[in-house]
Amino acid sequence: MVQGYVQIAIFFAVVLAVVKPLGIYMAKVFRGERVFLTPVLGPVERGAYKVLRVRPEEEGQDWKQYAKSLIVFSLLFWVLLYLILRTQGLDPWNPRGFHSAPWDVTFNTVSSFVTNTNWQYYGGEVTLSYFAQMAGLAVQNFVSAAVGIAVLVALIRGLAARSGRSLGNFWQDVVRILLYVLVPIAVVGALVLASQGVIENLSGYTVIHTLSGGTQVLGQGPVASQEAIKLLGTNGGGFFNVNSAFPFENPSGFTNVVEMFLILIIPASLTYTYGRMIGSQRQGWAIFAAMAVLLIAGTVVAYVAEQHGTPAQHLAGLHTHAMDGSTGGNMEGKEQRFGIASSALFTAVTTATSTGAVNNAFESLTGIGGAVPFSNLGFSEVIFGGVGSGLYSMLLYAILAVFIGGLMVGRTPEYLGKKIGAREIKLVALGVLVTPLTVLLSAGLAAAAPAGTRSLYAGFTPQGFSETLYAYLSQANNNGSAWAGYTGFLQPHGPGNVGAYGISFTDLLGGLVLIAGRFLPILFVLAVAGALAGKKVSPAGLGTMRTDNPTFVFLLLGIVVLVGALTFFPAILLGPVVQGLSTRLF
Amino acid sequence: MTPEKRQHTREEPRSLFDPAIVRPALLESLRKLDPRVQVRNPVMFVVEIGAAITTVAWLIQLFGGESLGGGHQPAWFTFTVTVWLWLTVVFANLAEALAEGRGRAQAASLRAMRTEATAKMLDGTEKSAAELVRGDVVVVCAGEGIPGDGTVIEGIASVDESAITGESAPVIREAGGDRSAVTGGTRVLSDRIVVEITQEPGGSFLDRMISLVEGASRRKTPNEIALGILLSALTLVFIVVVVSLRPFALFAGTELSETTLIALLVALIPTTIGALLSAIGIAGMDRLVRRNVLALSGRAVEASGDCDVLLLDKTGTITLGNREATEFIPMPGVSEAELAEAAQMSSLADETPEGRSIVVLAKERFGIREHDFDGTEPTFVPFSAETRMSGVDYNGTQLRKGAGDAIAGWIAGEGGHAPPELRAELDRIGREGGTPLAVARDEHVLGVVYLKDVVKEGMKARFDQLRAMGIRTIMVTGDNKLTAAKIAAEAGVDDFLAEATPERKLELIKEQQADGRLIAMTGDGTNDAPALAQADVGVAMNTGTQAAREAGNMVDLDSNPTKLIEIVEVGKQLLITRGALTTFSIANDVAKYFAILPAMFAATYATAGEKGPLDALNVMHLGTPESAILSAIIFNALIIPLLIPLSLKGVRYRAIGATALLRRNILIYGLGGLIVPFVGIKAIDLVVHNLLGA
Q: Is B313 a residue of the active site?
């Protein structure tokens, strides 16, 4: 196990090393300053403003205008993606001649990619053309990530503002985030991945003859270009059905580390950007610390649990220790080339960050190991979380912690010198709670409705309940990983995917949950930013509760864990906990 | 009621369980079950609705029905849960009723002061005191009560204000100046004054005070509203948690009765803080009144806890108010005793505190008491603004004392000249922040008397205390910068405003507010009124003018400027108590989950004859599912009355810095809130299960 811990520690050290330089770089981008790419990309940026007809220097937007632009932008891309996916039969680069997926599944898929979720009821290589993947999904991977970061930037501006109502200009933010942050890093990431064996082509599918004498059809495609942004933008939607467990997406232990690195760098570095933009690096590190503690805790729990093995293994008298040539532990659903440590780490990283890419099968995790993805989702994706969305959600929690803590030191609560009043706490409470409420209501509905239980794979068992709960946890939190089995799409493998049909109830409920889980919190966050922007800043004194020291980090952790635990404890009890506690039945 | 008795009630609050307060409170807590009252408190309203539903569920079972929602629970269980749910609401009402009752007891003693007096109008007619309106002019003679709040516009009188201040020594009220305000219900002891009424009927000081302590005019404060929103949001979450639990449970083949679900809901929603929230607010006001401070709004009390800067007048607040002679500095060739004697003689007729202090110092130092003025009749020369000197003439000798340059000028006129040492001493004393008074006999300067501002004892410690609370103190004085700096350093204030005028004071407040700071100040004079109104917390002295009292948002009946420290503490206590109980309330939920959920799902996925896998979570080893749920709900109800004393007294505030305070309160109320219910629920289960057999 020592070797595994060393792997994990080295990985975190590498991520930590990037936080400061990338954080500073992004702060410059968000402030509209010159960066080293400006000579190259400046003309493109100015061209984009011309096309969009914005004059960013003059057009600051208040929160309502910012929100309006964001909604219009997202809605346009929603419609565009829906059209692309529904007209797939006309697309070029469609070697298998796939027909479009039905409307209900497409509704779910489109909502999923526009909300930076990438929840997939379909399998990529058996449903979509190369064109749909490139022009439809990969584009969404960029723009939905940019939207998340833009909302964060607006919130930071609201927190840092000394007066006025402007939160910046949405169009400028999105253009600069795409041009200077997402595209360049994704290009470099794609090249690195391609150099390590991730495929990038437009060839037809290949048929191979396996060692055991059977034949297998292997999908091909422009994978590397989509893979990098899938991870960098915390999207997570695999080109192939089994996502990053598939060798064409994630061929080696090294690419596995690169992929996890791509997932974490932007969410982690944004905490530094945050500190820089509000003028106090310590504030940024405090948030980083709270996130890091939870991520490391989740990783260690998953690693220990998976290495320990399953009750069935112990019952059968199998030993589960690592020994020569064997990793030991619970290898069900894991790839030999990654082993236990890298699978556990990937599991924790991808669920903490709302990415949802997977390199192992969650439904094969042990009871306790499986509790890690559940908990990470239950904590509302604030452990680094999605690009932008993780930090803006965490900042809502910080304001909540400030409110309760501030009362306990006997002052009207204030965050960064801004007093938190009734309006702010109302918006923050709604912003924090809307996602958990969506999860509970939708999962309750899906568990009760006969139409919902049609989607089950494991039936009325704890496993079946886990599938249901996880499906809505994942969709509402815009994660996208799955407790596989639960489906809204049935594909009988007809040629060209003919005869496939969706389970409308599951697809539509999921699609609505995806949209609610993304855009309602965004609206509340922008409203909070607007409410805080015009507030006076009171200077900190001895009597002011500090938000940049270990005591606050502890309080913040407590609030995040308590809110998550109190909301989901009963539900998680009936899924993974029952599975973890029972050795005989399941 | 006599003043002594009032003092008594203020300083030693009645016992919490004084039957005179508890008995009506019990009745009141039943009356408050009215849904129209409950709906104002969403958390407790949810409990009441829950109680109503379980009551129906019990009635159905009583007439032979099945337990509502399934689950085959016995009727006694439904009945017992119902009783404890109703008790939860009653306990919450009791907390509020007790707080109100304590306030009402205060109000009753105030109301006894309000006399049905008739007012004598200036034009000779009479009018009932209750009908007086703003602008009426009344005459009050010795032995009569003052019929309403107003300003003395003619005359001077000694007034007994013990009715409102509790202070039995009479005070002087006179026309003009800063001691012109009188309060209705107080009594003139001597002389006759003409008072212009400044209140509208029913809006007197006493009326406001009564309605405030009764809680009748209590409006929710900003923080209370914000916390209320948070509690409502939490309640909403738990409603959804419980509502969604039914389909989840059915998925797992487990039926849950309405009673069980409602019990879980009530255990989870923040009933502890929800029940005590309004009691905390009422008790906070009550605590202020006990300290003889009348706050005109709860908002002001809360703001006082947020203050960053405290403006204090130097004179009378930081210093004793008067300069005192501390040293005689003779000129060359003059003995100190000679100077002291001359200074004393020239001050005998000087009734100012400075003059008296010279007489006293001379007596203390040299035992000089008797003067015969060489057997002649002395002629005292009083101080005039023109000469800026006073003194005495006797037997052809002229003694003069006064400002340095005034004396120098006088000597020059008499044909003498001031020695160079005089200028040196004058400058030195000025530099040190003192006031020099030169003393001359005929054409000779004898020396200088060193007058000093004396800082009150214990001020430094109080300012240190304020600093530890995070509050900076700024001293405001009309003195020049040198003098002000010296005294500021001696008193230990953080900053000072020298050569202050009312305008500069107002400017300073606005400047500080523009930087985002909250300002508290005390004041008494009419010229303080604009600043008092501008400050976030303006505490007017009761001895001050009516204008000042109306401009501020609090009145200190004791007229003690350092009372602000206590006001700040009460403000902070209010918030801390709310925050602490909120934290406690939420932390409690963990234990309640561990009590109720294993009970709910004890049989889920169980193989025949064995307990289900989730029974392993029954870490408290509670007896049966029924006793587990009952124990949680009983704990949830009983914790409310147990915390009433804390919510009425308030969590103690310590000036140890925000971080230390936060850590301490997280430990006590957060971790304590996690652990206490585990112990409490287990203990209750021992009684309910092992003794009563549930």
A: yes
